[in-house]
Design goal:
Blueprint: E1 2-6, H1 7-19, E2 32-38, E3 41-47, E4 52-58, E5 60-63, E6 65-70, H2 71-80, E7 85-91, E8 96-101, E9 104-111, E10 128-131, H3 132-143, E11 156-161, E12 168-174, E13 178-185, H4 187-192, E14 198-201, H5 202-211, E15 216-221, E16 225-230, E17 235-240, H6 250-253, E18 261-266, H7 267-277, E19 287-292, E20 296-303, E21 307-314, E22 316-318, E23 323-327, H8 328-335, E24 342-347, E25 354-358, E26 364-368, E27 371-373, E28 379-381
Antiparallel strand pairs: 1-5, 1-7, 2-3, 2-6, 3-4, 4-17, 6-9, 7-8, 8-9, 10-15, 11-12, 11-14, 12-13, 13-26, 15-16, 16-17, 18-22, 18-24, 19-20, 19-23, 20-21, 24-25, 25-26, 27-28
Helix pairs in contact: 1-2, 3-5, 7-8
C-alpha cells in the first residue's frame, strides 16, 4: 500500500470512523480503522461489531493494499497535523504504516489484514431518497424521550407506517414518563416498510445523528440491518435492526380523545420564566408549580436553601384543573423542540398525562407526566398507566 492524499480530505472520514469504535477497551480489531488503497481512492472503514462505517475519498494511489491501524491514535495525529498532502506507505517488513508530510515522519504499528471482516454492502435495489436535515430534525424531536436502558423495551425509536393514512409515517419514543410522536409524509418509505415498522436502539440513533449531514441521502433495509449512504454514495453507515416488541401506547393516547382542560401560552415567555424559576430548584425539589386562573398562570418554585420565586403569565385557559407541577428542567427541554410561538397544554387531571402541541407543529406532540408533590417536598414521577 502506497498512497498520497490531502489531510483535509481524509480527516472527516477518520473522525466518523473513530467515533464508533471503542476508545480503550474491547478487542484490538474493534479499535481498528481499516485503510484500503484502490485505484484513485482511499477507503476508510470501522466497526464496533454492530455499527459499520465506510467512506471513500479521492487519492493518488501508487500501490494498492489493505492495512489496519489503531483508530484513536491516527485520528488524534491527523487532527493535529496542518492541511496539505501526506503520503501513507506500508512497511511490510516492520509491520508499520509510514505517514509523511513534508519533513514530518511518523511510524504507526499495523494489524494483520487477516483480521479484516468484510462489511455489509449497501443494497442498491429499491433504495429510498431521504433528506439528512429531515432525519436529524426527527431524531432531535424524539431522542430525549427515549429511555437510556432497555427497561420494558423503551430503548428505541420506532418508525412505522400509519395504517389508515397512505404515505404517512409515524416516529415515536417513550421512556415511561415522557412520550414524543412525529408524523410525516414519505410515500416511498411508506411502501418499503412492513406494518410492524422498525426499531432503532438509542445508542445507534445517536451515532447515526452524528454521521448525518443536511444533504440528501439514500436509505435501505434488509431483514437484519438498516443502511444509509450519502447522495454520491461515497460514505456508508449501517446498523442492526431490533426484533423486540415496542410498548403499546394506544392506551394513554386515548386519554386525549375526550374533552380535557387546556391552556394556551406563549412558548418563549413560559420558557424564560421556567429558566428563572429553575434557579430556585434543589436536588430534592426540582419542580415548578402551575396555578390556573381563566386568563393568568401563576408559576412558583421554592427551596429551603434557595428561597422562593413567583411569576405570572397571560394565558387562555379552560377547564377544572386548579394546580399541577412539572419537573422544571424536563419541561424546558420539551418546549425547546417546538417551533410554534404559542403552545397548547392539554391536561387530563392533576396527576394524569399532559399533551403539549403547537399550531406550527401540527404533526408533532409530546406527552409528559406531572409530578406528585409529597409533604416532605420530595417528588415522585408518575408513569403512564
Amino acid at each position: 500500500m502506497n498512497i498520497k492524499i490531502l489531510k483535509e480530505n481524509i480527516l472527516p472520514g477518520v473522525q466518523k470512523a473513530a467515533s464508533i469504535i471503542p476508545s480503550r477497551t474491547g478487542a484490538a480489531f474493534l479499535r481498528t480503522i481499516w485503510l484500503e488503497a484502490g485505484q484513485n481512492h482511499l477507503t476508510i472503514m470501522s466497526t464496533d461489531s454492530k455499527l459499520e462505517f465506510s467512506g471513500t475519498y479521492q487519492a493518488e494511489c501508487l500501490s494498492e493494499g489493505l492495512v489496519g491501524i489503531h483508530g484513536r491514535n491516527v485520528h488524534d495525529l491527523l487532527r493535529k497535523l496542518p492541511p496539505g498532502e501526506m503520503q501513507l506507505r506500508l512497511d511490510t517488513e516492520n509491520n508499520t504504516l509510514l505517514l509523511e508530510q513534508g519533513k514530518r515522519k511518523y511510524k504507526l504499528p499495523t494489524y494483520d489484514a487477516s483480521w479484516f471482516q468484510h462489511f455489509h454492502e449497501f443494497p442498491q435495489d429499491n433504495a429510498v431518497l431521504w433528506t439528512g436535515a429531515e432525519l436529524k430534525s426527527l431524531i432531535e424531536r424524539i431522542v430525549f424521550c427515549i429511555a437510556d436502558d432497555n427497561t420494558e423495551n423503551m430503548h428505541y425509536l420506532k418508525l412505522a407506517p400509519v395504517s389508515d393514512q397512505p404515505g404517512q409515517i409515524e416516529a415515536c419514543g417513550l421512556n415511561g414518563h415522557q412520550f414524543a410522536l412525529v408524523r410525516f409524509e414519505h410515500q416511498d418509505l411508506f411502501e418499503r416498510m412492513s406494518q410492524e415498522g422498525i426499531l432503532i436502539a438509542k445508542p445507534y440513533l445517536l451515532e447515526l445523528r452524528r454521521w448525518l449531514e443536511n444533504d440528501q441521502l439514500y436509505f435501505n433495509m434488509d431483514d437484519k440491518r438498516l443502511f444509509f449512504t450519502n447522495k454520491d454514495r461515497s460514505e456508508h453507515f449501517s446498523l442492526p435492526l431490533n426484533m423486540d416488541v415496542f410498548p403499546d401506547y394506544s392506551n394513554f393516547l386515548s386519554y386525549f380523545e375526550q374533552e380535557n382542560s387546556y391552556m394556551t401560552v406563549a412558548k418563549e415567555e413560559l420558557t424564560e420564566a421556567l429558566d428563572r424559576l429553575r434557579v430556585f430548584n434543589t436536588e430534592t425539589q426540582q419542580c415548578s408549580y402551575f396555578i390556573f386562573d381563566n386568563s393568568e398562570l401563576v408559576i412558583y418554585s421554592e427551596g429551603q436553601e434557595t428561597g422562593e420565586a413567583t411569576e405570572s403569565l397571560q394565558i387562555d385557559y379552560h377547564g377544572d384543573v386548579e394546580k399541577i407541577a412539572f419537573p422544571t428542567k424536563d419541561l424546558i427541554e420539551v418546549l425547546s423542540h417546538f417551533d410554534s410561538e404559542s403552545v397548547r397544554f392539554e391536561f387530563t387531571n392533576a396527576l394524569g398525562p399532559c399533551k403539549i402541541s403547537g399550531i406550527r407543529d401540527e404533526e408533532y406532540f409530546v406527552i409528559t407526566m406531572p409530578v406528585d408533590i409529597t409533604e416532605e417536598v420530595y417528588y415522585e414521577e408518575e408513569s403512564f398507566k
